[in-house]
Amino acid sequence: MNVPRRPLTLLAALITGAVLVSVPAAPASAATVPGSAMTVSTASVPTVPVSAGTATSIGAMASLGDSITRGFNACGFYVDCPSRSWSTGSNQTVNSHYLRLRAAEPSLVAHNDARSGAKVADLPGQAELAVSQGAGYVTILMGANDACTSSEASMTTVAAFEAAFRTAMRTLTTGLPTASIFVSSIPDIRRLWEVGRNSSSARTAWAALGICQSMLARPRSTDQADVDRRERVHQRVAEFNAVMARVCEEQATCRHDGGAVFGYPFTLSHLSRWDYFHPSTAGQRLLAEVTYPAVPVL
After folding, report:
1. Which structural domain range is residue 287 located in?
2. What is the pTM of this model?
3. SGNH hydrolase-type esterase domain location, by residue (predicted)?
4. Quick check: helix, strand or coil at residue 132?
5. Max Cα separation, the chain?
6. CATH number of 124's domain
7. Is residue 7 in a domain?
8. Contact criterion met (CB below 8 Å) for 270 and 283
9. Is 20 inside any structural domain?
10. Residue 34 lies inside a defined structural domain of this protein
């Protein structure tokens, strides 16, 4: 998620599911994620998977978002690994939305328009790029960097988040009126703190790299001020997710994951060992598994 404008951006997540990212027809009940002993429950996700026999041609898909969707730190230290993106990646282990959809449409072209370090203010520009690419399917996993900042005070306001997200959605629905749009919820960054606070390696990485200090500062502190701060950051992410779900639901061509990524209890094994923040390859696969059941019929 946050790439301190010198490379750095997680999975707080899920993912998820951003990531967030960012996908085969997974069973509507449950699926086991390779590399993890956990089982992904999809019971609460609207199940409308793409039919392998669909006659609709997507042509091209585009993924919008931040470093989660870029696969940052999923294959090496401080590098984007777009091949391992949950949305448009080509890595077979991740089994992205792109690979799952390509099974039915071999000529499908994928564009990863996400950028490490991006915030929601960057989303309208990414949407314009997707329009120029003529995408028939667009995925969005955005917002972790708007909450994961250097301090609580520097988080994006809910009003500013909604304004930028609405602008991006308007750009997509106007420029690509027949395209299907999928919006993932932002991973729960408080869950990130919960699974990593007792790991000395995670705490060291968070401090040394200055990661998500709005949530991860003083990770072992039980002082009321720190407890309250974490709750407020958690609430801001929940509010961002509510905005995206509401705006998405206003559009007939948009589907939201129903909070599946935000609510998923990911573990330390789903995080990159480079920074204990971004999704690992296993985390990217998890995002793909959790989000794909909500993909709109194309």
Report:
1. 30-294
2. 0.82
3. 64-286
4. helix
5. 58
6. 3.40.50.1110
7. no
8. yes
9. no
10. yes
